[in-house]
Specification:
- The protein is α+β, with helices and mostly antiparallel strands.
- It has one domain (7-207).
- The protein contains six helices and eight strands, in the order αββββββααααββα.
- The strands form two sheets. The chain has a six-stranded antiparallel β-barrel. A two-stranded antiparallel sheet has the order 2-3.
- α2 (97-116) packs across α5.
- It is globular and about 35 Å long.
């Protein structure tokens, strides 16, 4: 069983959680290591946000969009870094480029809701996973909570071009069944950092009572 991140430790992490790595050229290969979890758990799996080292940048807040792969604490892997202007290289593809854009925009919108709704991190995580993996719709983590409501909210949003240009996608270089997960990172405007960190602190307090799962299967 993984060791729980303490409240004080997580408070310190929160201040750095969204210090995303410097923007690199699309397709740049980076090394990632999973270093921490938020403490949330639902349906037997950890929920976002998690924390990672990306390249030389530590304590980066990351959100998983990939339910059907696994990453373990301390695991290191390589990934390609892209932004939302190059979704053709992302792991999940819709029927056309517009459908792909819609899926990732919905996921990005849900990520923006994590800070304001820390106690809903489980439902928001499952809503994100359901966008890309239909099998999630029948899991207890999705059906036993309000994930369907969050998914519906995301699907009903009207997005504008480049609305989520501050988001980065880290797609594993290994595309096989044993690959790591794909993660999204929000690199916020300065005014939004405090809001997100406040949400993380609230999440830490809320999640202290939640029992950890044995592995990340997010």
């Amino acid at each position: 069983m993984f060791k729980r991140l303490g409240f004080i430790g997580l408070a310190a992490v929160a201040a750095l959680a969204l210090m995303a790595p410097s923007a690199l050229a699309d397709g740049t290969e980076v090394t990632m290591t999973l270093t921490g979890v938020s403490g949330g758990e639902q349906g037997g799996v950890y929920t976002s946000p998690y924390f990672a080292t990306i390249g030389s940048t530590t304590n980066v807040g990351i959100v998983c969009d990939d339910y059907n792969h696994e990453v373990y604490m301390g695991e290191t892997w390589t990934a390609y870094e892209y932004n939302f202007s190059d979704l053709g290289s992302a792991r999940f593809q819709g029927a056309n480029s517009g459908a792909t854009q819609q899926m990732y925009d919905e996921a990005a919108w849900l990520i923006t809701q994590l800070a304001a709704n820390p106690s809903d991190s489980g439902d928001i995580s499952f809503a994100i996973w359901a966008i890309f993996s239909p099998n999630v719709l029948t899991t207890p983590g999705y059906t036993d909570g309000n994930a369907a409501w969050w998914l519906n909210q995301a699907q009903n949003q009207k997005f504008y071009a480049n609305e989520f240009s501050s988001f980065l996608i880290f797609t594993p270089t290994n595309s096989g069944a044993d690959s790591a997960q794909e993660y999204l990172v929000m690199t916020p405007e300065p005014g939004s950092v405090l809001l997100f960190c406040s949400g993380i602190l609230a999440l830490a307090f809320y999640s202290r009572r939640i029992k950890f799962a044995h592995q990340i299967h997010s």
